[in-house]
Design goal:
Largest sheet: 5 strands, mixed
Distance between the termini: 62 Å
Order of helices and strands: EEHEHHEEHEE
Shape: elongated
Structural class: alpha+beta
Strand order of the largest sheet: 4-5-3-7-6
Strand content: 15-25%
Radius of gyration: 18 Å
Number of strands: 7
Number of helices: 4
């Protein structure tokens, strides 16, 4: 009897099909290029390879985030523009290096600002930047079986 049949994957990501793409594969949506084993922004537009929708574009299309950041508290109401600028700057900085780390959408109301993201590490970068810049309370909740993280940042006063 084989015991390895009971081994389960630790983290499941439905958008990671676990395969390597052929060199030069490009995403027809965002034009990211698969080179050297990873998706990169090309220096110039190159659509000579095989088209394949990258995981970030599939997540955006399906509105299926890998990370969420929820910002709340009375501090948000008084400093909404500053907080939005900080979040957008973190996203721009990370997105330049990796096309797989992007924003799906921003939603806001009077009480809360929420950001859905294509990458769980980007959510953590944003949460850490908020905490470093404004203190407050940061709570991080990782999903046990999916590649997903939800961050809650709150500051009153």
């Amino acid at each position: 009897m084989r015991l390895d049949r009971n081994i389960k994957e630790k983290v499941h990501d439905p958008y990671d099909d676990g395969r390597k793409y052929s060199e030069g594969t490009y995403c027809p949506q965002c034009l990211a290029l698969y080179q050297g084993g990873r998706w990169k922004w090309p220096k110039q537009k190159d659509t000579s390879g095989e088209p394949f929708l990258c995981s970030a574009c599939r997540r955006i299309r399906d509105r299926f985030p890998a990370g969420e950041v929820h910002v709340s508290g009375s501090y948000l109401n008084r400093h909404k523009d500053e907080i939005m600028n900080l979040i957008q700057n973190v996203v721009k900085e990370v997105e330049i290096r990796s096309p797989m780390k992007r924003v799906i959408d921003f939603t806001q109301d009077k009480q809360k600002l929420s950001v859905s993201l294509t990458d769980n590490h980007l959510a953590r970068h944003i949460g850490d930047a908020l905490y470093k810049a404004y203190n407050g309370e940061l709570e991080v909740k990782y999903s046990e079986e999916e590649k997903f993280v939800r961050l809650y940042w709150r500051r009153d006063a």
